[in-house]
Design goal:
With about 425 residues, the chain is an alpha+beta fold. The chain has one domain: Anthranilate synthase (4-Layer Sandwich), CATH 3.60.120. The chain is about 30% helix and about 30% strand. Strand 14 and strand 15 form a beta hairpin. Helix 6 packs across helix 11. It is globular, with a radius of gyration of 21 Å.
Length: about 425
Amino acid sequence: MRHHQTFPFESLSQTKASLLEWSKSYEDALWLDSNSHQDRYSSFEACLAVGAAQTFESLDVLHEFVGQQKDWLFGYFTYDIKNQIEELTSENVDFLNFPELHFFQPRKIIFIKEGQLHFHYLDGYAHEIASDHDAIFHKKSIQVLEKNEFSPLKINSRLSKEAYLERANLFLEHIHRGNIYEANFCQEFYAEQAEINPWRKFQQLNAISEPPFAAFLRMKDHYVLCASPERYLKKVGQKVISQPIKGTAPRGINTAEDKIIKEELANDPKERSENIMITDLVRNDLSKSATKGSVHVEELCKPYAFKQVHQLISTIVSKVDIDKNPLELILETFPMGSMTGAPKISAMKIIEELEETKRGLYSGAVGYFSPDGKFDFNVVIRSILYNASKKYVSFSVGSAITSKSNPEKEYQECLLKAKAMRTVLEKGQ
């Protein structure tokens, strides 16, 4: 059981900074931030979960806990969970070494919603609410800018441009032979012997992008700095919502240019075909559990503007039986179509052949399960992954290869998506 207590606060930005600073003393912590984006499916402004009462790294044990709807769970699924869901394997090298899945039952959860702070502590820790509240808002260190502790990083590319173009053409050969219609081709950028201040770097990355599905995860010496604009899957009551992104264009230099770029993106045949193919894939995934006739598309190829880019987003919804285990909905739709391709199994096999490294948590999902059967997970893109003990920093970017793709343009799209992460890592800390 949890004890609930509510407090007012004054400054939203200062409260968020204070909570993130306070979380540093916990080895298991997950911060979720909507950056004040509001849509019909928003649940809260931000949330912090800290301290592990229990941890889960097995699908079977997680399935049982979630099915019994015992309590809140926060954590992630890596892309490579696909190998436990389907008859797939991954032989590519993994330099980050994150567990394939990791969830924890938090001792303490703090929500920012409806203009207030909501503390939800396990009963055994309820007596710490008042002292924690005081500690959060009386830390003087958050008022002082930290000195530059570490040097700028030298970012390396796992694939040369020539190698990228060669492999993009191999994807096109598969498409022309009819093996697949579309595949998301990703490449890794990395730094070795790298030391960063992950909290500071997350704040810088989040400030650049201000996305609706930002996340900062610490799991001992593993860190995720996520500035994702994309929702993978959400469940509210019996309703399931997926919002895949496919279609990208840069922001303009002024409002007039922005409007033109946005309209061109919305009407671009290649970008629309990418999105529509994935929308069809998501419709098929959701239909595995949906009640008859309940799958429908609420929005198709709608352009949305973010600080760095314009994106085309579709919204697909369905209804499921009330007793459906929430984890099963994840397993029936994972990995998300926007990061795989169509047909999904064939695309994933070809991706494994042509990509250089394991994706790990990139292309995975970060989020939570609630005790009343709800859940919400993002797509881990526009993210920096850090293994502090190995001093290894990585970020990956990708784009969809279709029959209309131009490999050079796809490469430039990757560089556009990489810009925010590269900027954050290459500047002084």
